[in-house]
Amino acid sequence: MRTEVVTCMRLDSSLETGNNPRLYKRSKQFGMREARATEKLEKQQKAEIDRKRRQNMNFVNL
Fold first, then answer.
1. Which of 17, 34, 35, 41 has its CA 20 to 30 A from that of 27?
2. Does the model's pTM come out above 0.90?
3. Cβ neighbours of residue 16 under 8 Å, at least 6 residues apart?
């Protein structure tokens, strides 16, 4: 009985892991360094979008 339960558990867990391996991965804890880097990247991207928008408006208005 015990071996049967263990066998079924192994089979079920391997099937679940195959379908969605993220279920068994530990989620990453973001620290202050990653948060600052993300904010800096978002700020750069926003500035780049604004610059392109202004450049396009200048081109259209000419």
1. 41
2. no
3. 23, 24
